[in-house]
Amino acid sequence: MDNRVDLERVAEVIRRAQPDLVALQEVDNRTKRTGGVDQTNELARLTGMQGKFAKQIDFEGGEYGQAVLSKFSQSDVQVHWLPGMPAREQRITGVVEVIVAGNSLSFATTHLHHANGDFRLQQARELSRLFTNSEHPVVLAGDFNAEPASAPLTHLAETWRVAQPEGELRTFPADQPSKQIDYVLFAPENAFEIVSAEVLDESIASDHRPLLVVLRWRAVNGE
Hints:
Helices cover 18% and strands 35% of the residues. By secondary structure, the protein is of the alpha+beta class.
């Protein structure tokens, strides 16, 4: 929010929160505008986590997309293209597989269209098609560019559980957040217990405030 790209500052936010998994949007990989830095690898180094980059487009001599950080070993990232015109950037979801306490989990990052509500709804429908019949639980996190009562979130809530209590967790803009457009969702809806969900008090490191959600895996096969 002060017009500086400061990965150490972003990493400090992550270190303080101590998450197991992080979904990051608007990530550069060796682009001219951000000094040729592999931002995913640098954030992984600074946080002591493992990083995977999901490419959306070629950009300024490098690549632009999203990323996942994980405390757990993770598979290679799989990129799924979402509906919508690619005039600016075609939207994606990037997903990795991790093993948590012997259980398989899919963790996905996404960033829905910023301006076109019809595209956002199409993208929400595709996310449901892609993941809600998965053979193991899925956690989906990111910038949905849609408020809680919007058509995309209403559709997603039919097959996903939105990981938060009643009411909004306002995340944007970071300096004076007036609306929620960032979420953590999971499916199936009985896979986890929601322990907590909060917006972190960080107004400078990003243009969105961080959303931190704690989930407890429900007993598997009665164990």
